[in-house]
Amino acid sequence: MAARKLVAAMLGGVALAGCDPLPKPLYTEVTPPPSFRTEAGGTRVDNEGYQLDSQGYRINKRGERIGMVDVQAKTAGDASNAVAGYWISSTGSTAPGSVATPSGGAGGGPGSIMNSTLPTPTTMPQQAPISPTPGNVAPPPGYR
Asked: CA distances (Å), 95 to each of 60, 79, 82, 88, in order?
């Protein structure tokens, strides 16, 4: 009797070990398409229709890269600093330079605070006091 139970338990264990109860994820069966295609002449074109050079950058009709910015050349001689005047604890001093201003003058465009005429406390009109004041008003009838 014990031998039968042992054999039944072993067969049940083998049967369960052979099953894979978890479903297989879809990403293992389907591969996403590449982000570019190769045309008949060997030129690579991305999904937006731009031609790509050998390193994968977008190029225009003349073969120049699109969207590349030479940061060192653009910022050469620029003395602006986003943290100018703030204390930098790692250097033990304040940050040099000046805060950048928008091109075209001192201060932002037509809705910025720099160009607005907001009243200052000295130019605001005085408000009339609230009357009657809550301290000298009689309580409503029926109030205890």
From this structure: 41, 11, 9, 6
DSSP lists the bridge partners of residue 58 as 52
Per-residue pLDDT tens digits for 63-84: 888 887 777 777 777 777 778 8
At residue 4, the pLDDT reads 74
- The pLDDT score that the predictor gives to residue 16 is 53
Place of tokens 């690579």: 44
Q: How many CA atoms lie within 13 A of 4 on its CB side?
A: 1
CB 48 within 8 A of CB 35: no
Task: Give the total residue count for the chain.
Answer: 144
> Model's pTM, two decimal places?
0.30
Query: What is the SS3 assignment for 36?
Result: strand
Structure tokens at 55: 């390193």
The partner residues of 80 in beta bridges, in order of sequence, read 98
From CA 89, how far away is CA 91, in angstroms rounded? Answer: 5
Residue bearing the bigger pLDDT, 7 or 97? 97
Question: What whole-number distance in Å separates Cα of residue 58 and Cα of residue 86?
Answer: 40
